[in-house]
């Protein structure tokens, strides 16, 4: 599991270049990934939504724009990242630890976490907190990296461990902030393993959709 102090300090150091770096490293596909998630949420017509580990607010901004009737709140444990989210237009932000959310039980219709659960010190505790603040029947959406299967797996792993950290280091001037990325993706439960983890923590009707040849997956589950 990632060290939370290291993760928070790393994100604080790259906050100023985080948005640009993500767009470049994903080849712009991150726009499509957020579109897919937002489109699914829009069909639910939620009244409120909590975006956990929101970072610089990319997903929160997209949802806020596309579903104006939904009250969107963005939280993150890195204040520097949330400052960028606010400056970019996220209306409601709060510095908060995803493992100890400052909200009562049964508060939100939808909860989202994009590329954040993987960075948490305890996946299960994070999921339990997310479930706690969801209303009964509320939906959880997780967007995160995964590994492609088949012939693409080996070359992607080479890129992940040898090329991506160097590119990210050049763009952010903080190479070490991305050196743990490959290992975190390798260790992160994906596909059926993630569905099993969701069910173990009281989140049912789990389903996942691989995107962009499987380098990213979106998961959806419901509070039992």
Give the structure's gist in a few sentences:
The chain is α/β, with parallel strands linked by helices and 224 residues long.
User: How many domains would you count in the coordinates?
Assistant: 1
Mean pLDDT: 93
**What letter string, H or E per element, gives the SSE order?**
HHHEHEHEEHEHHHEE
Second rung of CATH, namely the architecture? 3-Layer(aba) Sandwich
Outline = globular
| Category by helix and strand content | alpha/beta
The percent range for helix content is 40-55%
Taking Cα atoms only, what radius of gyration do you get, to the nearest Å?
Answer: 16 Å
For the largest beta-sheet, the strand count, sense and barrel status come to:
7 strands, mixed
CATH class: Alpha Beta
CA-CA gap between termini:
27 Å
Report the count of strand segments: 7
- The name of the CATH topology is Rossmann fold
Number of helices: 9
Q: Strand sequence of the main sheet, in spatial order? A: 3-2-1-4-5-7-6
The CATH H-level homologous superfamily: Vaccinia Virus protein VP39
What does this structure look like?
- The protein is α/β, with parallel strands linked by helices and 224 residues long.
- The protein has one domain (4-223): 3-Layer(aba) Sandwich (Rossmann fold), CATH 3.40.50.150.
- The chain is built from 9 helices and 7 strands.
- Strands 3-2-1-4-5-7-6 form a 7-stranded mixed sheet, with helices on both faces.
- α2 packs antiparallel against α7 and α3 (29-42) crosses α4.
- The longest helix is centred in the C-terminal third of the chain and has 20 residues, at 153-172.
- The two termini are 27 Å apart.
